[in-house]
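Researcher: First entry.
Model:
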Amino acid sequence: MSTFRRLRNRLLGSPRFQRFAATFPLTRPIARRQSRVLFDLCAGFVYTQVLYACVKLELLTLLELRGPLTLSDLAVELDLPQDRLAVLLRAAVALQLLDRCGADGFDLGARGAMLLGNPGATAMIRHHALFYQDLADPLALLSGGGTDLASYWGYAGSDDPGGLDATAVGAYSELMATSQTLIADLILSAYPCHRHRRLLDLGGGLGAFVAAVAERCPKLALEMLDLPPVAEAARISLKARGLGDRIDVHGGDAFRDPLPTGADLVTLVRIVHDHDDAAVLALLTRIRAALPASGALLIAEPMAETRGAEAMGDAYFGFYLLAMGSGRPRSRARLEQLLREAGFRRIREQRTANPLLVRVLVART
């Protein structure tokens, strides 16, 4: 530990200095802000459970449709005791999920409205129940025990992902499709896919991303590949959207099976961080071999060390992927290193409107 860091920590850990900082006019705002940060670290799990309760009860939707409602009205609608429901409602107001209306009324708050405008976020909140169970004993998780999240993402620990049945892939495919619309819009606003001839989306799920591309780029030839049971579900989904003849869907394992050739743009949307380095490097190398001389690979996902989202990258995704049993959060620098090892030479970041949710790297052959 450096001398400066040692002296800093000794000073900040001193009760005498903390009392001084809390009362001295120039340091008081900083001390109060840091106190709030420390308390939020302690209370963060409670906040997530308040949010989860609101989503699971569909309280936000109820207030959007019928609000404002009184405590007694809500107790009847939600079948909960008034005194206990009041605790949840006050907590939701404090977190700006709800607003108070008069002495006894409650309505949808600003953050609640934002959540309802993003179905993918509410789907992830429901899904997080599994993650919370795995985090109940973080030391057990760190010791390498089995997790509920690993069972949910069936392909993560499977020796034969291509052999999974529809039941094993259905839930996570639906979850990813729900949250894909916003991500697709951010990607397509950042990179001009229409400049290419043919796009191949690997790990395309139910086809939400290629469907969004089809709308934005009507002249672009499109195809996608995912595990056979996912691909079959994608065909049904795309046909229902009138895109059955527009998008070629291939069933296969992108990490093991031959990749379709002919595309001059390959996309990996929220795929890379789900897999370990050796598997990622092998996949990138195979993609490089399948691309023509003028081809490009687009990687889109949240990245570690993103300014303003450092905690999300290494704390949230670090533990989520640990519980999932596969993958790791990676910085732009680490992704660029893997791309260069795979044979890509020209790598550029395309700025997105919300880098906290997704960043885009484009690598050319």
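Researcher: Second entry.
Model:
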Amino acid sequence: MAQITTEMIKQLREATAAGISDCKKALESAEGDYSKAVDYLREKGLATAAKRADRAASAGVVELYSHGDGRVGVMVEVNCETDFVGRTENFRKFAHEIALQVAAAAPRYIKEEDIPEADIEHERGIATAKAKEENKPEAIIPKIVDGALEKFKNETVLLRQAYIRDDKVTIQALLNDAIVSMGENIVVRRFARWELGESTQG
């Protein structure tokens, strides 16, 4: 049987908000298997906040925002778990902030995983060519390229972007705060952004 460590108990307690002795008992009965321990606590009705990220979020709001006298239009779908939270002023405010962010910072993807491999390779090619053009030493080119890719992700991935009202905060941090304060899983599902006169070519 796997040894039950304090760290394992702490991790399970943070994820489920169950008591220390209940977490220890759950891990013992699951022979140290974390997922089985969570299931054990759920079955016993002890997991009051069992990992919010696992919970379905299908309520929420579609927020519409028009900026600059109709020059930029944004539509964002933000989901939560219940209509009750979806109707609260705090949730609506959060959805509105996300719409403002999309209007101002023009992200292209929600999460890093949403970036197609082809886009990453394209950016990698540009950064490599630029470094060579500037006669950078061969040995440091990979590091320069990695830095360029990180910058690309920070600028184009919504959750990695700096919040327009406070550049020390990322949108991911803003989302995490909303999840904690509202006590439900919250997901930015999708968004669309239109700018007057922009090309519709991909």
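Model: Note on the second entry: Residues 36 and 89 are 37 Å apart (CA to CA).
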